[in-house]
Amino acid sequence: MEQLLNIAIFMPLVGALLIAIVRQEKFSKILSIGISSVVFFIILYLFVSFNWQTPGFQYVTRFNWIPSLGISYHVGLDGMAISLLLMTALVFVVAFLWSWKVEDRPNLYFTLFLLLETACLGVFSALDFFLFYLFWEGMLIPMYFIIGMWGHERKVYAANKFFVYTFFGSVFLLLGLASIVVYGYVMTGKLSFDYLFHLGFSYPIWLQTAAFLLFGLGFAVKIPMWPVHTWLPDAHVEAPTAGSVILAAVLLKMGTFGFVRYSLPLFPEASKQFIPLIFFLSLVAIIYTAMMAIAQTHIKRLIAYSSISHMGVVTLGTFAMDLNALNGAIYMMVAHGLSSAALFMSAGFIYDRVHSYHMDDLGGLARYIPKLAVFLMISGLAGIGFPGFAGFVAEFLVFLGTYRNFPVWAFLAGVGVVLSAAYFLYMYKRVMFEEETLSEYRLEKWKHIKDLETHHAISFLLITIYALLMGLYPYPFVKIVEQTTKYVLGG
Exposed (0-12), middle (13-18) or buried (19+): which is 315, by Cβ within 10 Å? Predict the structure, then answer.
């Protein structure tokens, strides 16, 4: 069964090579959907077979890669990783389905997305620092070209900003990794990049503090946390729809994943020391960016700011030092991944039909594209944590756990929940109703707008079903996540 994980990680890479060799449009599209679907079912099988009562990592593969440097190919999954892998695999299936009608350089387009899928799966699976960093950096290149080649008017600017910001953070992450590897060598005489090897260390507080800051800056840029968040709205606005879907659903989760996987267990004392700072930055992100979302008239920019606000809830729960809060934070990673993907798909569909993201150019669309109106409402309700969806369970756990130890912070962060409902309902009203603001010419023109096609509807249904399943029957999903939180918090 261990080999299934390796197959899932590298199958998209093989598919990318086949597309590069064959270079036939229809073959590229069918192969991409087929491979991503196989990967999803493999990971679904691993998810169903996962034993949440067994501590530690499962489906582990390890062999020496560069023995002289202590580098190995070491992968495995815990409850958090398998949950994020399943969401990632599903979102890539959706992205490929959504891109069925891409006509601009489709072979290169699907090749880059398949390479990106391998990198994303690798980040969540790696148990070797070198391997983790290799996948972490490998993700930047395909996403850079996806934004820069298939984006909108300011695509090159947005791609460069995305690359510079994230690469800047990665440099600090590399320094953090180097610091603990060198310390391990000095203390034991053994050079090792193995995660489990370093997990057994009790680092001195000075090293914990320094490494936490280095790791933290790298992760904070990726999330992104305030004030290193400014690259995200530009990247989302200019990226193609599938690019925004992957960026919001998967890439942002790598930062919060890093905090849970590395910062909390490796630097526990420093993590407690920096709780006030993390809470302050999280609270600013939750409230400030939610207010920024309310001020937007560009629907993609509004959704981008809402993502930053929701990720603030994740970082708040991560550092609340409570089992329920951390369960909720990891749950929120998956829940937000699903809802944000659906929201960006909705925005992309509107642009494809109306050729504008600006609310001033929209209004009254519910009459002409009612199917999209329904799915946009469902996506928004999932995003604001409406009962019955995964986001509700996630937010409930985060605020429950945070309130236990930090009631004032939990109360202040709760303001963000109210604001999220405000900006979504405002956007929905402006986009789907308010026909009186439109000219007769535009209303006449919109009578010919085509509603959702089959590949759009399937994409929405896959995400909606998953979000509802996690919201209506959260028990197995929470128990799997709890397998990680118990060893992270020492429970």
Answer: buried
